[in-house]
Structure formats: C-alpha cells, structure tokens
Amino acid sequence: MQIQLDQIDLKILKLVQQNARLTAEYLGEQAGLSAPAAYRRLRRLRD
Fold it and tell me: Phi/psi zone of residue 43: left (φ > 0), alpha (ψ -120 to 50 degrees), beta?
C-alpha cells in the first residue's frame, strides 16, 4: 500500500531519521500537532 506524504509527514520523517528516539510529544511540538496525532502519523509511516 502506498501512502501520500504531506509536509507534516515529511517533517516527522526527517526528525525521526535524525534521531529515532524522539518522543511523540516532541515530534508533535515540532510538527504543530498534538502528541497523539504525531504518534498516529509516525505509526502510519512505520507500517
């Protein structure tokens, strides 16, 4: 299955590529999302 990546997904992906141990809270802050929304996007990118 192929997913479309938007600017927020790309920002999260870039951050995680630099440091895979970042928290969902930090990722959310950097991407302008809540922690649960950032976690959902990260989980979708990983799957």
Answer: alpha
